[in-house]
Design brief:
The chain is about 15% helix and about 30% strand. It is an alpha+beta fold.
Length: about 270
């Protein structure tokens, strides 16, 4: 039986994932609290519109694709939305900790700026419109996905293992920053021709497979680019374009009863 084996949420775009036992899928198709915050460039503090929806372009804020050294930081939200704490590594010294009021956000953004300016990607912050960084977002609100539709992302452990075999090294879920990891299916089955997906009691309409970028080359623990994921997907796996995992939207998108709660251990059905 196929089932959910891991669930993840990413409170701050580009930073540490949270491994959780359940996720709430909102009627608008987003995960509650996923990508709720983002460090935005000076030129990116307002969204643009696409198809009548807000789009916060990932090119206007910090991402691991451009700043892989962010992977070496460990960010946690303090209880009850009380603030943000960032460490240098799992047991490293504290980089910054502060509340989410105006002064606290400024201090957190300044500390992240100083960290990046002292690192290998410092030149990227010198481009026009980059500084100062602004920490934007609200606890629990899902806003800073790469697409205006939001989308939920899913991949299988079987596809992960197949890619690892092709690379000749073990790779982990967090390299791909998916919300849902499933097991008990064939490798690449989740990106095959599907008409429906059910996870527990929540029904999804499968969207396109997820096109991948250089972010996936970076080791999620260190930020060092140590795996040629894109060329392996195309030249070894045989994909025409490098994809890994699939986007999902709940059936009845926007209706009050769309979405629901999905949990680790839920049964998964992929309908071709």
């Amino acid at each position: 039986m196929a089932q959910v084996v891991a669930l993840y949420r990413f409170p701050v775009k580009g930073f540490t994932q949270e491994s959780v036992s359940e996720l709430r899928v909102q009627p608008d198709g987003r995960i509650e609290g996923d990508r709720a915050f983002s460090f935005r460039y000076a030129s990116g503090v307002a969204p643009r519109e696409r198809a009548g929806m807000q789009l916060w372009s990932k090119s206007k804020g910090l991402t691991r694709m451009e700043f892989p050294s962010l992977a070496a930081l460990r960010l946690t939200l303090l209880p009850d939305g009380g603030g943000i704490r960032i460490l240098r590594g799992d047991d490293g010294p504290e980089l910054v900790s502060g509340p989410l009021d105006e002064a606290g956000r400024r201090a957190i953004a300044d500390a992240v700026t100083e960290y990046l300016l002292a690192g290998p990607e410092a030149a990227h912050l010198s481009a026009p419109g980059r500084l100062p960084l602004t920490l934007m977002g609200t606890t629990g609100e899902s806003r800073f996905q790469d697409n205006p539709e939001g989308f939920i992302s899913m991949h299988s452990r079987e596809s992960l293992a197949a890619l690892g075999d092709a690379l000749g090294q073990e790779i982990s879920d967090d390299r791909f920053r998916s919300n849902i990891a499933i097991s008990g299916v064939s490798a690449w089955e989740e990106i095959s021709e599907l008409s429906a997906v059910r996870i527990g009691d929540v029904h999804f309409a499968p969207q396109e497979p997820i096109g991948r970028c250089l972010n996936t080359h970076a080791n999620p623990e260190t930020g060092v680019r140590d795996a040629e994921v894109l060329t392996t997907l195309t030249r070894v796996i045989g994909q025409s374009q490098p994809t890994f995992g699939r986007f999902l939207l709940p059936v009845g998108l926007g209706a009050p009863d769309a979405g629901g709660v999905i949990r680790v251990g839920d049964e998964v059905e992929l309908v071709s």
